[in-house]
Specification:
The complex is a heterodimer of chains A (127) and B (257).
Chain A: H1 6-13, H2 25-29, H3 40-49, H4 52-56, H5 69-73, H6 80-93, H7 105-108, H8 115-125
Helix pairs in contact in A: 1-6, 3-6
Chain B: E1 2-6, H1 16-28, E2 32-35, H2 57-67, E3 72-75, H3 78-93, H4 95-105, E4 116-119, H5 120-128, H6 130-136, E5 144-147, H7 157-160, H8 170-177, E6 181-183, H9 201-217, E7 222-225, H10 228-236, E8 242-244, H11 245-253
Parallel strand pairs in B: 1-2, 1-3, 3-4, 5-6, 5-7, 7-8
Helix pairs in contact in B: 1-11, 3-4, 5-6, 6-8, 9-10
Chain lengths: 127, 257
């Protein structure tokens, strides 16, 4: 499992995309839908089709809120959020794949910012 | 009774009020929250990838401590609750994760998900009982209150098993117990925009405003939350009436001003 390829994403995503029946409920429920170039149901389909390069170029991986609404609504037990996270992890594990840098943080910190936000964003956008 | 308590990073800093009010209220209701020693930050978000092991260790350390000190771990921050409960589920059900964690940690006795993780609201409901809270209330809240659940307490429901993920009631029952009038609104279990507020402010702004508008439309005078990040996002986007649920509890019980 050392190569970054489609099998790698399938393996770390812990979900079986073959079970998808393409009903689109996940995307219908997604609160970040309008901000996504690839929609949640398309992530599932593209992974099944083995479109590694298309997945890796997605900007939507940084809009997913990990709110699990898609997972909750799926009638087939597929977890689109897991696929999105697996793609994001793969991108960030590559050289220069991180989406935020430490020096980006101080200018956006305000008096009320909760530690939880910084920790969470760092975990999501950096490896 | 005493119960092991995991506060988490934010409750020691920005959300100190959430923590202070919770401890005072619990004490008044006969529960002592014993902070576990040397706890470490949970990481804020549950790592979903199969090979994420190091990011789960802090949760397992807390869980293992609680296993040997009463068997229950109490959480309060929604994020800590979500992370620790899901990691605990992995330790109980995912062999590859359980083995890797145990091989690394080399505990005297393997940890296999034995600890029961409960959120403060579950403690109020199942250990204290909402009826007993009702009896202990000195200053009923007397306001229309909208419960805001967000995501972390409810989803994924097969693991969190907190409440009905589409139509939850525990916060409304809590509001009734402290003498308030719960008002339900459509966006109470929608996402506030979460950590994306650091990189994409407009997305969080849209999400948070929608929630606040939805609550205002049914006449909510206050909006209740258990999550410091929801609190921040909602406050930032016009939610002057957002409060932590423990603030109201403490006030109702007469343990704070």
């Amino acid at each position: 499992m050392e190569n970054f390829d489609i099998e790698y994403i399938k393996e770390i995503s812990r979900t079986d995309v073959r079970k998808c029946m393409k009903c689109g409920k996940c995307s219908g429920r997604c609160p970040a839908f309008n901000d996504m170039d690839i929609k949640p149901h398309q992530f599932v389909t593209l992974l099944g089709q083995g479109k590694f390069d298309v997945l890796l170029k997605s900007k939507a991986i940084f809009s997913c809120l990990s709110c699990m609404a898609c997972v909750e609504r799926c009638p087939r037990g597929v977890a689109p959020a897991n696929v999105i996270e697996a793609v994001r992890d793969t991108v960030e594990r590559m050289q220069n794949g991180n989406a935020i840098k430490a020096e980006d943080i101080p200018p956006i910190v305000d008096d009320l910012i909760p530690q939880q936000l910084l920790v969470s964003a760092y975990r999501k956008y950096r490896k | 009774m005493k119960i092991c308590y995991y506060p988490g990073c934010t409750l020691k800093n920005q959300a100190k009020r959430l923590d202070d009010c919770a401890r005072l209220s619990a004490e008044a209701l006969g529960v002592t929250m014993e902070e576990i020693p040397e706890w470490q930050c949970c990481g804020g978000v549950y790592p979903m990838a199969k090979d994420e092991i190091a990011t789960k260790l802090s949760s397992v350390r807390a869980l293992d401590y609680a296993k040997h000190h009463g068997g229950t771990l109490l959480t309060l921050c929604s994020a800590c609750h979500n992370v620790i409960k899901r990691v605990n589920n992995d330790m109980a059900t995912e062999k590859s994760i359980r083995d890797k964690v145990n091989n690394y940690m080399r505990l005297d006795e393997r940890y296999e998900g034995e600890t029961k993780v409960i959120h403060y609201l579950e403690m109020l409901k199942d250990i204290v009982g909402f009826d007993n809270i009702k009896k202990a209330v000195k200053n009923p809240v007397n306001k229309k209150i909208g419960a805001y659940y967000g995501c972390l307490l409810l989803r994924p429901s097969n693991v969190m098993a907190f409440d009905n993920p589409e139509n939850p009631t525990i916060l409304e029952d809590f509001i009734s117990a402290i003498g308030g009038t719960p008002v339900k609104y459509p966006f109470r279990n929608e996402c506030c925009g979460a950590y994306v507020s650091l990189t994409n402010k407009s997305l969080t702004e849209q999400k948070s405003k929608k929630i606040l508008e939805s609550a205002a439309a049914v006449g909510a005078e206050l909006v209740l939350t258990a999550c410091p990040l929801c609190y921040y996002n909602l406050k930032k986007n016009g939610g002057d009436n957002v409060v932590y649920f423990t603030e109201l509890l403490a006030k109702a019980l007469g343990v704070t001003e």
